[in-house]
Design a protein that fits this description.
The complex is a heterodimer of chains A (230) and B (248).
Chain A (H helix, E strand, L loop, with lengths): L2 E8 L9 E8 L3 E6 L6 H9 L6 E5 L6 E5 L10 H7 L6 H10 L15 H13 L5 E5 L7 H14 L4 E5 L3 H7 L2 E8 L2 E8 L11 H14 L1
Parallel strand pairs in A: 3-7, 3-8, 5-6, 6-7
Antiparallel strand pairs in A: 1-2, 1-4, 8-9
Helix pairs in contact in A: 6-7
Chain B lengths: L1 H26 L9 H44 L4 H15 L6 H8 L3 H25 L3 H9 L5 H11 L1 H26 L4 H10 L3 H34 L1
Helix pairs in contact in B: 1-10, 2-3, 2-5, 2-8, 2-10, 3-5, 4-5, 4-8, 5-8, 8-9, 8-10, 9-10
Classes of the chains: A alpha/beta (230), B mainly alpha (248).
């Protein structure tokens, strides 16, 4: 076990209903996993609980020996006074310089690093934001819609690259794209909204990796499982 | 910017003057109550050199007091931006003191310090400082979450970076606040000169008031308006240059 939640309960102040009550989950292996569910079921809240950004919940989160837990989301911005390349250079340790170059190339952003953040498209902005998190020392990175506004092919290429570069790290990917989640993720925690709070069901994804193929029937089966669970 | 400010002032000033002269002619008031345009012109030629010097004197006090207020407001604003007990204390104290008419304290300063440069500077600084502090506190206390999040969760946030992010993101607001505070500093300096000075345009207005010389007062207002418009235009231009330099 590397990440476990036991009987998580959360009620936001001044609301009658619990967002979660006795929500439990377990992720036992590093890799690329997903939180999937409709808007408002509590994916982001759970992500923030895991990283310690949200307090006031009941239950227990066990993170094992993971200390550096990061939460990133797609609306983040970089300061506007300098180019994104300068910002990346400033937050990258010398030992990660090669990694930075490799990720910039893999994410297709080499030509854009001289620009300022506001001069990039939304998809480019999200990719730059994700790069700076990948260049930090972390054991768990939660990517909350971090690849929004990026085209499907580039998204898949990026996810495969992340898996190649960080096989021993744990990723929790929040996305509403059922095909992408089914194809690329290993464990998929599907959030089911019930009248008495949210439950999660774990579905095994296809965990697509570089050099492997995913059978269409297997992918469809996973998608069906997710739809049934949600 | 400068051109717009001066033309706006001229429109307002001459509209006001036109209304005043209309009242004079409609009510058939004597030149003693409201002077005729020729009297105003003659007085202008007479007092222009002296009033120019007075306005420059007052403006210099206003500029120094504004610089002091800005430095102090940023210092306290930066310290008070945090959600600590001290930050809360500074905010509550600033709001409460702001609610009190600072100008009412001016006589105390006059009693303690007498006539001269220092009481003028102190009164102008006090009048300019508190509204400026409230604005700076508001701006510096407001997190720019979508930018700051990364630096916070990765442990890279330093107070200098936090202040830089908030100042950069609110550059237009800060420029507007600083430009607006120039009027307060000027008003403070003039109030100080009404009460506790032997020089400056406020002192000259006080003398004109004792002589019931409306021409001189109108000319003093004209020169105050032109000088403050020029100064504010200069501040706006400086803000524009600072932002341009930061973003280029």
């Amino acid at each position: 076990m590397i990440l476990e939640g036991r009987n998580i309960g959360l009620r936001y102040p001044n609301t009658d209903n619990c967002l979660f009550e006795n929500l439990s989950f377990k992720i036992t292996e590093p890799g690329f996993h997903a939180l999937f569910g409709a808007s408002g079921v509590g994916k982001t809240s759970l992500a923030k609980i895991i990283t310690g950004d949200l307090k006031g919940f009941s239950g227990e989160i066990k993170t094992g020996d993971m200390d550096d837990l990061l939460y990133s989301y797609n609306l983040e911005r970089l300061p506007g006074w300098s180019s994104v390349g300068n910002h990346l250079a400033k937050i990258t340790s010398p030992s990660h310089q090669d990694l930075m170059d490799e990720i910039i190339d893999a994410f297709g952003l080499r030509e854009h690093i001289r620009l300022r953040f506001s001069e990039l498209s939304l998809g480019q902005q999200n990719r730059i934001n994700l790069i700076r998190y990948l260049l930090q020392d972390f054991q768990l990175l939660i990517m909350d819609e971090s690849l929004a506004n990026v085209d499907e092919l580039t998204r898949e290429r990026i996810i495969l690259k992340i898996k190649d570069l960080f096989p021993e790290r744990l990723f929790l990917y929040i996305s509403h794209n059922i095909i992408e989640v089914s194809r690329c993720c290993d464990e998929i925690l599907v959030f089911r909204s019930l009248h008495n709070g949210t439950r999660t069901v774990s579905v095994k994804g296809q965990n697509h990796k570089t050099g492997q193929t995913v059978e269409k029937e297997d992918l469809e089966l996973t998608m069906l499982e997710i739809m049934h669970a949600s | 910017m400068l051109h717009r400010r001066i033309s706006q002032f001229l429109i307002i000033y001459f509209t006001g003057l036109a209304i005043l002269l209309s009242i004079k002619y409609v009510l058939n008031l004597s030149d003693y109550v409201i002077p005729c345009p020729a009297d105003i012109g003659t007085t202008f030629l007479q007092v222009f050199p002296m009033y120019s010097s007075d306005v420059m004197d007052t403006l210099s006090v206003a500029v120094i007091s504004q610089v002091l207020s800005i430095c102090l407001a940023f210092l306290v604003g930066i310290i008070g931006r945090r959600t600590t007990w001290f930050g809360s204390f500074v905010k509550v104290a600033a709001y409460n003191i702001q609610a009190y008419p600072i100008v009412a304290l001016a006589p105390i300063i006059f009693i303690l310090l007498g006539d001269g440069f220092l009481p003028r500077l102190l009164i102008a600084t006090m009048i300019c400082y508190f509204p400026l502090l409230l604005s700076v506190l508001g701006i510096m206390s407001q997190p720019i979450t979508d930018i700051e999040h990364f630096y916070r969760v990765t442990g890279r946030m330093r107070w200098q970076l936090e202040v830089k992010i908030r100042a950069y993101e609110n550059m237009n607001k800060l420029t507007t606040v600083i430009v607006g505070s120039a009027t307060l500093a000027m008003a403070g300096a003039i109030v100080g000169e009404f009460i506790a000075a032997d020089s400056g345009i406020g002192y000259s207005i006080r003398i004109a008031l004792y002589q019931s010389d409306l021409s001189r007062i109108l000319i003093a207002l004209f020169m105050i308006g032109i000088s403050i418009s020029l100064y504010q235009g200069l501040l706006e231009w400086s803000g524009y240059l600072a932002k341009k330099k930061w973003t280029d």
